[in-house]
Amino acid sequence: MSLVSNAVARLRDQRVDEGIKPLQARGWRAPRCGACRVIESHCLCAWRPSVETRSGVCLIMTNKEVFKPSNTGWLIADVVRDNHAFIWSRTDVNEQLLALLNDPQWQPYLVFPGEYVEPSRVTHTVDLAQGKRPLFILLDATWTEARKMFRKSPYFDRLPILSLLPDKLSRYRLRRSTRSEHLCTAEVAALCLELAGDSDAASALDAYFDVFSQHYLGAKRQQEVDVSTPAHAELLPFVRSAQELLA
Predict the structure, then answer these.
(1) What are residue 83's DSSP bridge partners?
(2) Is residue 35 part of a domain?
(3) What is the pTM of this model?
(4) Sign of the CA dihedral running 158, 181, 85, 45
(5) Count of domains observed in the chain
(6) Three-state secondary structure call for residue 191
């Protein structure tokens, strides 16, 4: 069963109910935990962090991405309480997405590289109007797909573009990227949270991403779970069941 608060999990379940078949990538037959998508022997659920956040996130996903067990948007939805997820369509715009973008409590930022946008729309900081909370719009797709989503979504045209300036290369090792400076979605979200002042959430998400990667790859390589790694130690202060994990 999916966690109620995780919009990516709900979106996956919705697609299954609609008759969309999950992606059958290598290893798809291995029994996976329904809540964290990791092979059951390396289940991540006990390490799910619990932190408070002022920020919200909205993931715009492709049909394929929502089914990929290596997807890191799921991790963001685990960490950030106010999370939303929608399947992108060029012709069928989700009315709930438009309502979210127009919700007066939020100040939306579309996260995208600034070099592809006119400079007047680009910012590198999160500067909020009084009474507003930041809502980060993340295009959770391959780089080729994300560029298409950006170009063919006119409802994004009025949004400011948050262009990140990361000072480190991506640590994502679950899928190959043609460019090492391309960050995965969870890494992007952690940078956004830090810019918005949600430092605990940023640290928790960074550590959760590293622990997820270790569990995922450990299962793939048939290695035993090692909870003594630095990533687990960094995540532990944010885990509600920390005492049980240490027992």
Answers:
(1) 57
(2) no
(3) 0.90
(4) negative
(5) 1
(6) helix
In a domain, 44, yes or no: no
Provide the total of helices (H) and of strands (E) in the chain, helices listed first. Answer: 8, 6
Own/partner contacts of 202-207, CB < 8 Å, gap of 24 or more, are 203/234, 203/238, 204/49, 204/51, 204/79, 204/235, 204/238, 205/49, 205/75, 205/76, 205/79, 205/80, 206/234, 207/49, 207/231, 207/234, 207/235, 207/238
Residue type, 172: Y
Could you read off the pLDDT of 63-108 as tens digits, one per residue? Answer: 889 988 889 999 999 999 999 999 999 999 999 999 999 999 999 9
Domain range enclosing 231: 7-20+49-246
Whether residue 25 lies inside any domain: the answer is no
Cα angle value 66/103/110 (rounded, 5°): 50
What's the token pair of residue 130?
Answer: 């009084």
